[in-house]
Structure to design on (604 residues):
């Protein structure tokens, strides 16, 4: 294996399909047929009915919490929307079951989308409080709006649907229908992470700022996640109402929302299989503990305490849940297969330079934080196809200026023009669509995703001039990894890569978006001397006739001098010098700023 910038033509990656699937699939197919093959009590069928319908709602928690990283403690309310949709539609208004179910799911999805909009301003524990409040409001309405919801008495006599002319009055037939729906939704949720939307969701979960900068519309992704979560909750609730023929507000209160959260955390939030496993255990385990033999009577007396303690211990010591434990154990046992990376096409970085106007132009750019003038009236022009460095002592406003150019901060004043378009008020993901790529001083990668998945997220930015389709995205990402010398690490989870390789993955992610303008914030930070020399060679390859424009911040003056065409120097938010590297680095005011003394002429 070669070092930081080296190439390797063979690689290894885990098998994508495992032999245990040949056992899991027949077992899953046999489960819904058990009630037909054996004498199963009505109580047992009811328990399985509850497990199946709850599992559908928990799949929604996998989407919003496991994939997108957003806290949701209102899933019981969405479950209730679906249930009340079926109950009110069929009993109160005489509508067909399937029409009522569709209405319940639709109302739940709309409510989920509205709740998702709150993520524009809120996150973390604030978002948790909002979802709790939403859940409590639903509880109050369900209990007190008696004229509509029937209040605490609930709604009885909910009919079962018919399918292809056959009435599903038999519990076993209806359970089979619900199980088949569950299997279809498991497949959908399992497939979701492999899609453009799913990768964007996982990027938001891992690092929302990095996702936004690479072109992900983070608000849209979070709203979509909440909408899907709510729709799945509504589906489970509607089928639950049909299965038990009776609902009341007690079925959809805050306690139920906490149960849904516990189920997904216990089984494993990042897998639909984990969500179903956690649901099954939390529903069946208490019943199993209550049925212990007389010799273990003491367990029956304290089964709730044992049940609660087991759940707590699993969540504390197995943060990825039971399914994560099984998956990680299997990955350690299975052997990787060799992958040939010799046929990866060369990365296309060429940007047509047809104009002489600056690619980036700043006019009187300002960014104030209260009384602090971090960027104070900067005028700057960066020519197309050049490497322009921005230097200055610590606290001079360099990273702040880059964040303003990137859209992370809104400018206090002035204009930012990229390729002739004023982008001063546009968001980071909109600027990415204009061809703006970015790396960070403190690396911002999607830590739980592979190197290839990280780079694919960068490749799928809006207006990337590549062919549409998943294959083109993967090819682009592999080419970017090959360019930085890490194609052989494509399937490695990035948090297990050494620091220098993580830095290169971040650069590859930016390059995969085919940027016109690449912002590099301290790319040499944390690298040893050998890695810095390899980074210099990489930057020289980037500037060698591709037409790519690079705006670079770094404290390593040797690196800056080797790769830059032009240098701008900041001090206390103001531009104090600009010009060719040899000229600027020997400028008296620049030397004085770095030494912390006044200029040579004695001015303050």
């Amino acid at each position: 294996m070669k070092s930081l910038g080296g190439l390797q033509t063979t690689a290894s990656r885990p098998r994508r399909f495992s032999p245990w699937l040949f056992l899991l699939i027949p077992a899953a197919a046999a489960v819904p047929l058990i009630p037909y093959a054996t004498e199963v009590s009505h109580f047992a069928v009811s328990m399985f009915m509850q497990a199946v319908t709850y599992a559908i709602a928990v799949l929604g928690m996998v989407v919003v919490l496991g994939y997108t990283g957003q806290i949701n403690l209102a899933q019981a309310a969405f479950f209730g929307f679906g249930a009340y949709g079926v109950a009110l539609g069929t009993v109160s208004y005489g509508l067909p079951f399937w029409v009522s179910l569709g209405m319940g799911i639709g109302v739940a999805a709309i409510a989920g989308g509205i709740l998702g909009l709150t993520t524009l301003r809120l996150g973390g524990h604030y978002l948790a409080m909002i979802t709790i409040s939403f859940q409590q409001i639903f509880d109050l309405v369900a209990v007190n709006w008696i004229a509509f919801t029937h209040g605490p008495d609930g709604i009885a006599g909910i009919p079962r649907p018919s399918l292809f002319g056959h009435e599903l009055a038999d519990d076993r037939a209806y359970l089979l229908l619900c199980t088949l729906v569950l299997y279809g939704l498991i497949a959908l949720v399992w497939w979701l992470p492999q899609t453009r939307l799913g990768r964007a969701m996982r990027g938001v979960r891992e690092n929302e700022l990095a996702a936004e900068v690479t072109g992900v519309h983070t608000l849209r992704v979070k709203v979509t996640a909440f909408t899907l979560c709510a729709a799945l909750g509504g589906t489970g609730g509607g089928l639950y109402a049909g299965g038990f023929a009776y609902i009341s507000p007690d079925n959809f209160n805050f306690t139920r929302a906490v149960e849904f959260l516990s189920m997904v955390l216990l089984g494993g939030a990042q897998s639909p299989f984990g969500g179903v496993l956690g649901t099954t255990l939390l529903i069946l385990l208490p019943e199993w503990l209550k049925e212990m033999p007389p010799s273990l009577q003491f367990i029956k007396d304290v089964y709730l305490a044992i049940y609660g303690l087991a759940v707590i211990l699993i969540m504390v010591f197995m943060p990825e849940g039971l399914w994560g434990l099984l998956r990680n154990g299997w990955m350690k046992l299975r052997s990787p297969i060799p992958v040939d990376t010799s046929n990866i096409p060369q990365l296309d970085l060429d940007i047509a330079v047809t104009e002489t106007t600056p690619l980036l132009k700043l006019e009187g750019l300002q960014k104030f934080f209260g009384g602090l003038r971090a960027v104070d009236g900067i005028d700057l022009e960066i020519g197309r196809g050049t490497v322009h460095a921005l230097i200055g002592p610590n606290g001079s406003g360099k990273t702040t200026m880059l964040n303003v150019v990137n859209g992370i901060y809104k400018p206090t004043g002035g204009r930012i023009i990229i390729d002739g378009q004023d982008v001063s008020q546009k968001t980071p993901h909109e600027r990415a669509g204009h061809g703006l790529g970015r790396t960070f001083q403190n690396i911002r990668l999607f830590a739980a995703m592979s190197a290839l998945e990280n780079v694919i997220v960068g490749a799928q930015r809006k207006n990337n001039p590549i062919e549409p389709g998943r294959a083109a995205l993967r090819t682009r990402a592999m080419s970017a990894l090959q360019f930085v010398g890490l194609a052989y690490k494509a399937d490695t989870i990035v948090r297990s890569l050494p620091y220098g390789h993580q830095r290169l993955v971040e650069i590859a992610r930016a390059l995969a978006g085919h940027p016109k303008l690449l912002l590099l914030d301290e790319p040499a930070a944390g690298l040893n001397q050998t890695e810095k020399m390899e980074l210099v060679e990489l930057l020289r390859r980037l500037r060698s006739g591709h037409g790519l424009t690079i705006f670079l911040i770094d404290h390593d003056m040797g690196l800056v001098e080797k790769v830059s065409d032009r240098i701008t120097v900041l001090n206390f938010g103001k531009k104090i010098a600009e010009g060719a590297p040899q000229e600027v680095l020997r400028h008296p005011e620049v030397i004085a700023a770095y030494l912390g003394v006044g200029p040579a002429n004695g001015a303050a």
